[in-house]
Amino acid sequence: MDLQDPRPRVLVTRRIFAPVLERLSASLSLDVHDSDQALSPEALRERLAGCDGAFVATTERIDAALLDACPRLRAVCSMAVGYNNIDLPACTARGVLVSNAPDVLTETTADFGFALLLATARRVTESEHFLRAGQWRTWSVDLFAGQDVHGATLGILGMGRIGQAVARRGVLGFGMKLVYHNRSRLPAQTEAALGARWVDKDTLLAEADHLVIVVPYTPETHHLVGAAELARMKPGATLVNIARGGVVDDAALAQALRDGPLAAAGLDVFEGEPSVHPGLLAASNVVLTPHIASASLRTRLAMAHLAADNLLAFFSGGTPPTALNREVLARPR
Ligand code: GLV
Prior knowledge:
One of its GO terms (cellular component) is cytosol. It comes from Ideonella aquatica. 36% of the residues lie in helices and 14% in strands. The protein is of the alpha/beta class. The protein folds into 2 domains: 9-102 and 297-330, 3-Layer(aba) Sandwich (Rossmann fold), CATH 3.40.50.720; 106-288, NAD(P)-binding Rossmann-like Domain (Rossmann fold, 3-Layer(aba) Sandwich). The longest helix is centred in the last third of the chain and has 19 residues, at 297-315.
């Protein structure tokens, strides 16, 4: 980064795709942390202190203390859809624009949610590990017999864009019955098209054969599914979490996988990731993936371009397409 460069300075907090960097560097002065290791909170504060903008993902914590240490900062643009790592009210109070990356990842993430559902219910990874370990000696009548997906009841906790895309796959592709719980109900027409039934959370837990969790992580959704909720689920049910670690109490989940009622779980997100609860690592009836639900190459590129679109629009005086706090745009830039 050239400190004499009069253009807005932007910290890119991780290694990202070259074409996206090229677009950004045409009109912004970049400081690129070209690494897959997230900056420590101290290093982030130091690097961001002289910057006007930040390109972030899910791993950079942008809170009030950091904002106070970075008074030049005017825009924080994330390539993720979830923004629980960013204190939005604190940014708005300081006139800092925040954007996320919705829509471009919806279908890819729903594909992966469904992949986890299928792998979990039909014990795909567990049986593969058995085969690779040389343990396959003979055919047997119930070898890795799992749970059916087709015709079963799909429960969706969090019926936003991604929840609806998972629901479409279940209903239209696999003939599943659909129950869901969400703060707001779907329009009647959408409910009718999917045969979707809104139920309260306890009914959802009691009725779902396969529960898919897709709610944003907020203080209200912390441990939304804990020991009491897991105890309400059907014996033999499965649970998939593609939302955020922290929505599910991982310790309680590990216990429910060991002692029942759950048959299995599929998890892409974890409390305290990249650390994973030892009880989950020890369980054979859980499919574990490293937060990759949106990770098709095309979608990750689209997410990064969308974060760049927001930065470029903001610093050229335009309207960032997926701003979360447009009200700050009324202030001088
Ligand atoms: C990924 O978890 C995202 O929020 O985009």
